[in-house]
UniProtKB/TrEMBL annotation:
Binding-site positions, substrate: 218, 349
Molecular function GO terms recorded: homoserine O-acetyltransferase activity
Superkingdom field: Bacteria
Metabolic or biological pathway, per its Swiss-Prot or TrEMBL entry: Amino-acid biosynthesis; L-methionine biosynthesis via de novo pathway; O-acetyl-L-homoserine from L-homoserine: step 1/1
Name this protein carries in UniProt: Homoserine O-acetyltransferase
Keywords: Acyltransferase, Amino-acid biosynthesis, Cytoplasm, Methionine biosynthesis, Transferase
UniProt family annotation: Belongs to the AB hydrolase superfamily. MetX family.
EC number, UniProt record: 2.3.1.31
Role, per record: Transfers an acetyl group from acetyl-CoA to L-homoserine, forming acetyl-L-homoserine.
UniProt cross-references to Pfam families, sorted A to Z: Abhydrolase_1
Main location per the UniProt record: cytoplasm
HAMAP family: MetX_acyltransf (MF_00296)
Species the sequence originates in: Aurantiacibacter sediminis
């Protein structure tokens, strides 16, 4: 399928300093974003899509670095579940990332890249930046917000902290807080980056980049996005061509070759410091802690917002039990919520792949 052409790929500079949860402020924050579909005269048909950890604003158009279709092109477009012939879809690159929005690679007021002098950020900071983007665009209330994985964290954070900004919240394959296991996997990736000699304490801009460390971090994370059944079906214990080489420490198994490819290609489009900052923001995320430890209290202001939560039976990164915890909290504040666990063989990545049942859920909820 040919990729769509974005109607608008833009960047704005926020007019006011962005206050962060750390207590610091960022001046001159830039937010890069993409839009699809016409905005109605009353601006009531806008949908904001939050992307995941390694995603970006190129939700439904060709990626300028990889040349691949947008990461959710199967879901967003004319006649698709998120129908751009009816809705104006906005997707912004998150604060701290590396595809145009302000992040560690951006130039600091001192004239050099921030590197590790970039302030610590949170999921709520990312959402706060995107609400400021909506202010610039003159959009007061969204028809819906949508997000999967880290995008789902942002969707839940937006509902908790800015309930007046949306009528509907669709959160897919996500959680209200990271488990110790989630944090542990992220720490392995961060240590791989920081152990790369080219990392240089984050001051590698203009020189050799820590591609080896970033590649290993991506490999470790990618395993958590898949299911054991999916890996077994796709690769099993199948070997590469035995006759082409001897056994050793090269990629003898097909699954090894696959993971190495995922790691190497990732370094072409992502910044190592951004990976450090964004994974840390995900680890800090605890929606209940923001409200004194009770998740229901965090979501109490969103009792008039419609919610739809979706999990997948093979997702062991953000489990159905994680999603049910959010459902119970919404039930406790009498918020209208629907929940479904879908069956799919792909693990956490199911929300990005061909799962027709998800298409039906999204289309039905978005309306």
């Amino acid at each position: 399928m040919a990729s769509q052409t974005a109607l608008s790929v833009q960047k704005v500079t926020l007019p006011k300093a962005l206050a962060l949860d750390s207590g610091r402020e960022l001046e001159g924050v830039e937010i890069a974003y993409e839009t699809h579909g016409d905005l109605a005269e009353d601006k009531a048909n806008a949908i904001l899509i939050f992307h995941a950890l390694t995603g970006d604003q190129f939700v439904a158009s060709e990626h300028p670095v990889t040349g691949k279709p947008g990461w959710w092109e199967r879901m967003v477009g004319p006649g698709k579940p998120i129908d751009t012939s009816r809705y104006h879809v906005i997707c912004a690159n998150v604060l701290g990332s590396c595809m145009g929005s302000t992040g560690p690679a951006s130039t600091s007021p001192g004239g050099a890249p921030y590197g590790m002098d970039f302030p610590v950020i949170t999921i709520r900071d990312m959402v706060r930046a995107q609400m400021a983007l909506l202010d610039v665009l003159g959009i007061e209330k969204l028809h819906a917000i949508v997000g999967g994985s880290m995008g789902g964290m942002q969707a839940l954070s937006c509902a908790a902290n800015f309930p007046e900004r949306t009528s509907r919240v669709l959160a897919i394959a996500t959680t209200a807080r990271h488990s110790a296991q989630n944090i542990a996997f992220h720490e392995v990736g961060r240590q791989a980056i920081m152990a790369d000699p080219n990392w240089q304490g984050g001051a590698y801009y203009g020189g050799e980049t820590p591609d080896k460390g970033l590649s290993v971090a991506r490999m470790a994370a990618h395993i958590t996005y898949l299911s054991e059944a999916g890996l077994t079906e796709k690769f099993g214990r199948r070997l590469q061509d035995r006759d082409a080489k001897s056994f050793g420490f090269d990629a003898d198994f097909q699954v090894e070759s696959y993971l190495r490819y995922q790691g190497i290609t990732f370094t072409d489009r992502f910044d190592a410091n951004s990976y450090l900052y964004i994974t840390r923001a995900m680890d800090y995320f605890d929606l209940a802690e923001e409200a004194g430890g009770k998740l229901a209290d965090a979501l109490a202001g969103a009792k008039d917002t419609r919610f739809c939560l979706v999990s997948f039976d093979t997702d062991w990164l953000y489990t159905t039990a994680d999603m049910r915890e959010v459902v119970h909290a919404l039930n406790a504040v009498a918020a209208p919520v629907s929940f479904v666990e879908l069956s799919a063989p792909y693990g956490h990545d199911s929300f990005l792949l061909d799962v027709p049942a998800l298409d039906r859920v999204v289309k039905g909820f978005i309306g």
